[in-house]
């Protein structure tokens, strides 16, 4: 098994925190997104989408989606469970993980990709040339505002996003909050529930991954 | 358990095909998206995002994401497996299901939402007012073109998208292909592998769901 990644970026960071929580280590090759390593022909041959992370399994299967790699690793290393044990836990963790990624991480990404020259013509990850539209910054910021309010409401009276233990949903929310800082949009001061939760999850040793 | 949905729309249709394959039936209330049923105050109280499907479990948990509902139902009704049995199957099915949804279904959605008055100011599902930007139509069509080529390559020499049996990845691909017709973008004639695969999967009784 071999992992190609750039742990500092918000999407791969989700995987690195997931692996740190489970104590999973494997051969690793850094792909420096800021230096265009994702466009190196040898990496493009592996993943034509030019995205990280990429996991190559022992039988040569290539996985490029964080959710897919996490499903694979959860099946191989079930403990501690981060994707849920019961049907209801599995459903609720997937529910919030998906929503937090789409409504939080992707909202910041819309605003960020426009503002960073390394993502010129890559308003969406992948090989298709898509201009950075100014309107997407505005749209991303509006979506992010709504996301903070959704997360703040969800965390009222809850220690974690789902159930009574740390899960993938917390990992995704932590990465969304930290990614916000990249565009100078920190969690709003009035979000006291997020602040309380953030202090706990960001103090876990796994938060240093990525 | 109760399901609120509009089976004809491409996103909920994924769930209805999934349920048909497993023979799952449950109490159902139609929410007519074309008549604005998703904005009815009683439905908004249930799902502030105004999206379908919505599953309310017996303990009152509300699930709004197709992937979450499918994870929940797969755990309750494991046979026939549509999300994979082994770690590798789980990873590969999630990989392709996620890619097909993001690169195919969402590409069509970008173009479609702009063109349909029922989605005015809802360029992304949810309660945030987001204008239908003309540039998104163009972007969606470019992404869709790339998706056809990705799917065509993937299906070369394969009976199904992953492994040797029908899975969620095939359901997502079928819904992407049929959704394309909504914007008059059918699978291009040169995609012979997609055409062969499509003839098989669209002939399954489950394809009539939605």
Structure, explained:
The structure is a homodimer. Chain A is mainly alpha-helical. Chain A has 2 domains: about 1-75, Glutaredoxin (3-Layer(aba) Sandwich); about 85-210, Glutathione S-transferase Yfyf (Class Pi), Chain A, domain 2, CATH 1.20.1050. In chain A, about 50% of the residues lie in helices and about 5% in strands. Chain A has a 4-stranded mixed sheet. In chain A, strand 1, helix 1 and strand 2 (about 30) form a beta-alpha-beta unit. Chain A is globular, with a radius of gyration of 17 Å. The two termini of chain A are about 20 Å apart. The model of chain A has no long low-confidence stretch (mean pLDDT about 95). At the A-B interface, helix 3, helix 4 and helix 5 of A face helix 3, helix 4 and helix 5 of B.
Protein chain pair with the most extensive contact, residues per chain:
A-B, 39 and 40 residues
Side-by-side strand order of the widest sheet of chain A? 2-1-3-4
The tally of helices of chain A reads: 7
Strand coverage percent of chain A: 5-15%
> Quick one: CATH class of the largest domain in chain A?
Mainly Alpha
How many beta-strand elements of chain A?
Answer: 4
Q: Please name the CATH architecture of the largest domain in chain A.
A: Up-down Bundle
What is the mean predicted local confidence, pLDDT of chain A? Answer: 93
Query: Distance between termini of chain A?
Result: 20 Å
Category from helices, strands and their pairing of chain A: mainly alpha
Which stretches of chain A are poorly predicted, pLDDT < 50 over at least 5 residues?
none
């Amino acid at each position: 098994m071999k992992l190609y990644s750039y742990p500092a970026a918000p999407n791969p960071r989700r995987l690195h925190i997931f692996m740190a929580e489970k104590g999973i280590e494997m051969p690793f090759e850094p792909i420096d997104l800021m230096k265009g390593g994702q466009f190196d022909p040898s990496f493009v041959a592996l993943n034509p989408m030019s995205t990280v992370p990429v996991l190559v399994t022992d039988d040569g299967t290539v996985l490029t989606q964080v959710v897919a790699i996490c499903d694979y690793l959860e099946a191989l290393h079930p403990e501690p469970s981060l994707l849920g044990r019961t049907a209801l836990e599995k459903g609720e963790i997937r529910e919030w993980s998906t929503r937090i990624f789409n409504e939080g991480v992707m909202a910041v990404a819309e605003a960020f990709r426009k503002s960073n020259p390394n993502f010129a013509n890559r308003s969406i990850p992948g090989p298709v040339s898509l201009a950075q539209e100014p309107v997407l910054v505005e749209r991303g910021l509006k979506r992010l505002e709504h996301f903070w309010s959704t997360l703040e409401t969800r965390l009222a009276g809850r220690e974690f996003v789902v159930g009574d233990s740390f899960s993938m949903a917390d990992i995704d929310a932590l990465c969304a909050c930290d990614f916000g800082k990249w565009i100078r949009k920190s969690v709003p001061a009035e979000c006291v529930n997020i602040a309380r939760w953030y202090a706990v999850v960001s103090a876990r040793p796994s938060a240093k991954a990525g």
